[in-house]
Design a protein that fits this description.
The chain is an alpha+beta fold. It has two domains: 126 residues, GIY-YIG endonuclease (3-Layer(aba) Sandwich); 103 residues, At1g16640 B3 domain (Beta Barrel), CATH 2.40.330.10. The chain is 23% helix and 31% strand. It is globular, with a radius of gyration of 19 Å. It starts with a helix and ends with a strand.
Length: 255
């Protein structure tokens, strides 16, 4: 997902189930913008890439209420429902076309130009990419509560920054996200903002997204998708304590 964030994708909404009915919530208005390239992400992992020349909320309505002959809409309606039933956050990201790109006197449709390339590189499952089997532990993961420790102070060069920690729950390790404690919630930026995650030497690991709609408390869920999942699985084990500090509301440093 960080590759999408780095080229300008932003979170503008999310999907939710209410009394068994699928609904989309748009957090920003794009009523006057067409030619949108959009993505559906599940806990930060890109699952679908699409484009539309219509208003985005009109396109989302087709996923919410698909017609009998609209096979893609029907499939994604069920994909979104299944993810939500498993307590997986499904966000809507978009790369708006500002209309400024031209070749001579002709406007370049950014969405049309990028869609095929992004699908080819990222290979999203809902676009027909590699599928996860029903028995995969990622889909059957136990969504356990994490253990936080926000009472440790760092000594030395960065002593001004309060140290935080979370327990590497199996779901975090398998899906590439983690939840933030209530006590440290205010140290993070707003819903949909990007978060740069860096190593203790300051080198950038990846760009994640701050999600404040996935948890009922409004505390941040840090969505890093496949990139963060791979990092967790390379350097951490399940139940290990992960320590970090906030260098700013949009920069997190792992200790």
């Amino acid at each position: 997902m960080d590759r999408l964030l780095n080229i300008g994708f932003i979170k503008i909404g999310y999907w939710t189930l209410r009394d068994g009915e699928l609904h989309y919530v748009m957090t920003e208005s794009f009523n006057d913008v067409c030619n949108n390239l959009y993505a559906f992400t599940c806990d930060g992992e890109v699952k679908y890439i699409g484009k539309t020349t219509r208003l985005l909320k009109t396109r989302m309505y087709n996923y919410k209420k698909p017609g009998l002959s609209q096979s893609t809409n029907i499939k994604n309606n069920e994909n979104i429902r299944e993810a939500l039933r498993q307590d997986i956050a499904v966000d809507i990201l978009v790369l708006p076309d500002n209309g400024l790109m031209h070749y001579g006197q002709f406007h370049l449709n950014l969405a049309a130009g990028l869609e095929d390339s992004i699908i080819k590189v990222i290979n999203p499952v809902w676009n027909g990419g590699s599928k996860i089997t029903a028995g995969d532990p990622v889909l059957n993961a136990d969504v356990s509560e994490c253990i936080f420790d926000d009472n440790v102070q760092i000594e030395g060069e960065h002593s001004a920054y309060k140290n935080h920690a979370f327990n590497m729950a199996s779901t975090y390790w398998k899906r590439g996200f983690f939840n933030v404690s209530v006590s440290s919630s205010d140290e993070f930026s707003h819903d949909g903002d990007t978060l740069t995650i860096v190593n203790d030497d300051g080198s950038v690991i990846l760009t994640a997204i701050i999600n404040r709609t996935a948890n009922k408390s409004g505390t941040p869920r840090i969505m890093g998708g496949v990139g963060l999942k791979n990092f967790f699985q390379k350097y951490y084990t399940i139940d290990q304590t992960v320590s970090y500090r906030m260098l700013s509301k949009n920069t997190l440093q792992l200790n």
